[in-house]
Amino acid sequence: MTDWIRAQKPFGNPEALGPLQLAWLGDAVWEMHQRLRHCNSPGKSRDLHVAVVSEVRAGAQAEAIKFLEPHLSDFEKDLARRGRNKAGRGPRKVDAATYGKATGFETMIGWLFLKNPSRLAELLDRLEESATDLQ
Fold first, then answer.
1. Which of the residues 40, 54, 71, 94 has the least number of beta carbons within 10 Å of its own beta carbon?
2. H or E stretch covering 2
3. Residue pLDDT, tens place only, 96-122
4. Which one is catalytic: 27, 47, 74, 78?
């Protein structure tokens, strides 16, 4: 399901962007990935929406970065740390630690999407494999 990411060529200069800009981009990439995962599933649009929202919420992103951590390079861990430290408080319904981890995840996703799409696809494939193993 990551062929669309693998087809991307490195683009732009992510080093010129701040962690929150990268997180903003990473949030869009992550949501697109989840939508593409679910778009071939039969169901009403409301059901598909609920399924995607459950995967893009901060708690799910925090779990994703925790699962991926042993597989991350030091640089990728640093990207996630920088995003986490810039996150701020976040919405009331999410505790600050979870929101920070999710922002760190999004920051890493945004940077990898721009700079190393094949690595991003590799990490997302790991998440996909773990989700399949849990079913």
1. 40
2. none
3. 888 899 999 999 999 999 999 999 999
4. 27
